[in-house]
Amino acid sequence: MSEDNNELKLVFEEPKQRKKVPKHLADYSPEERRTLATELGLPAFRANQIANHYFTHFSNDPTTWTDIPVALHDTIREKFLPQLMSLVRSVTCDNGMTRKDLWKLHDGVLVESVLMRYSDRTTVCISSQAGCGMNCPFCATGQAGLTRNLSAGEITEQIVAAARACAEGELPGGPTRLSNIVFMGMGEPLANYTAVIRTLKNVTEPNPEGLGISARSITVSTVGLVNGIEKLTEEGMSVTLAVSLHTPDDELRDSLVPINSRWNVKEVLAAADAYEKRTGRRYSIEYALIRDINDQSWRADLLGRLLKNRNAHVNLIPLNPTPGSKWTASRREDEAEFVRILESYGVPVTVRDTRGREIDGACGQLAAAELSK
Ligand code: SAH
């Protein structure tokens, strides 16, 4: 394990000289929040009140609260609720049912989140890192490398902002509840493990200590960092695990998902199986269909054989071509054939809808467009 950590550090460690992200309520456990309150000379229950405003009512403005003395507002804002991000712009499509928000963090770094309302649920897709160190050649985020990890506060803020937008009826159809969270925006969540786990706790803890969203409604998507999957298994949280496989063979996966040279297909699936065994949760296999690269029927066949006795579901994603990429989405008939072959093995498969295409919905594209302006 320590050897793995050293190796990962080379890939993931952030530059040392960065401005520190201000500490936020969402960076602390409920216990630490109470300790901090006490250290500030406040009764511990103030921490619970603040958490209640934040997690139950999505409010981060003490001036609107009536249960806390005005004299404490500045301290609370500074120590518990500093502003971590500001909205640069929002773009919408699908008649407003999909909205992508571009956020600027305190050090000028840009990240994105996408809110999607469906008939039966509302999902936010969030970023766990600014940029990404995984370098997958078809992904917009991967192209610029990793800028830095986001803090738990910064990840949680994207979720709370989405919950607030839902509650305030900002999407057509009136007020609703944020029901699902997917870690499929920028970054590799398991490479920012501690902050992601704190965020998962913030989301799943019942009110007032968290948002009270069930772990089953959360999907953590990973390139397949086996040591991270193993740690997540030990947490015993029943979040849905999604593994970005993209091809069943190591030869191609070494180039599509370069970390495959560290943990190959067999090792990644074994870790996902162990996760499934521990949590009882079926996992997802993410597979971006790229024309003439990974969409051949023999690959579907190989994938079917790999998965037929596993408790996994395949999510096919038509490739969303990144600017300047020579790759594009599969032909419709090849996609249909891919689905047919997987189904012939009894493997559950869905083709992901392509919400948000026209607003650069794919991972990292909006931030990349903003940076190139
Ligand atoms: N780092 C994590 C989560 C981020 S991306 C991971 O790799 O799983 C979420 C999903 O979108 C991943 O499956 C990723 O491979 C996929 N993806 C990235 N760029 C894409 C593109 N241009 N078209 C289709 N899917 C893409």
From TrEMBL:
Keywords attached to this entry: 4Fe-4S, Cytoplasm, Iron, Iron-sulfur, Metal-binding, Methyltransferase, rRNA processing, S-adenosyl-L-methionine, Transferase
Needed cofactors: [4Fe-4S] cluster
Gene source species: freshwater metagenome
GO biological process: rRNA base methylation; tRNA methylation
MF-aspect GO terms: 4 iron, 4 sulfur cluster binding; metal ion binding; RNA methyltransferase activity
Cited Gene3D superfamilies: 1.10.150.530, Aldolase class I (3.20.20.70)
SUPFAM superfamilies reported in the protein's UniProt record: Radical SAM enzymes
Protein's name according to its UniProt entry: Unannotated protein
Subcellular location: Cytoplasm
CDD domains the record matches: Radical_SAM
PANTHER family, alphabetized: 23S RRNA METHYLTRANSFERASE, RADICAL SAM CORE DOMAIN-CONTAINING PROTEIN
Chief place where the protein resides: cytoplasm
PROSITE patterns, A to Z: RADICAL_SAM (PS51918)
GO cellular component, one term: cytoplasm
